[in-house]
Amino acid sequence: MNPRLNLEKTEPEAYKAMYALVKYMGHSTLSRTQLDLISIRASQLNGCAFCLDMHTREARQHGETEQRLYVLSAWRETTLFTPEEEALLALTEEVTFINHGVSDATYQRAVAVLGEQQVAQAIMMAVTINAWNRIAIATHLPLAA
């Protein structure tokens, strides 16, 4: 796959705005692990190789286990994730597949487990990584060496 335009060079102000959102999310009350799980799961669903490569590397650096990374796409079939992480993953999936909407059950469970502020932050993180996935896929960003 041949790379396409370099969005950072072509639209630097838009790119800076996207990075500002990422930086903001890094200061949220969501843990680094929670942010990584949202990024990886959305990237799996969107088929974004660039983001999967980057975020799984980062997750490992942040202490995530290989086992949890290997089974993340089948998280419902394991007991490796906390109730909070499960709520985040379900919410991430429904935000990513937004044409079906976020169900009342998923939303209510997330609020019950995480509270409104963290649900708001999780939605913003899911929206952010979905935007990055679309940028990476549309521009054919190559994997890092």
Automatic annotation (TrEMBL):
Pfam families: CMD. Gene3D superfamilies: AhpD-like (1.20.1290.10). Residues 12-94 form the Carboxymuconolactone decarboxylase-like domain. PANTHER family: 4-CARBOXYMUCONOLACTONE DECARBOXYLASE FAMILY PROTEIN (AFU_ORTHOLOGUE AFUA_6G11590), CYTOPLASMIC PROTEIN. This is Carboxymuconolactone decarboxylase family protein. It comes from Hymenobacter ruricola.
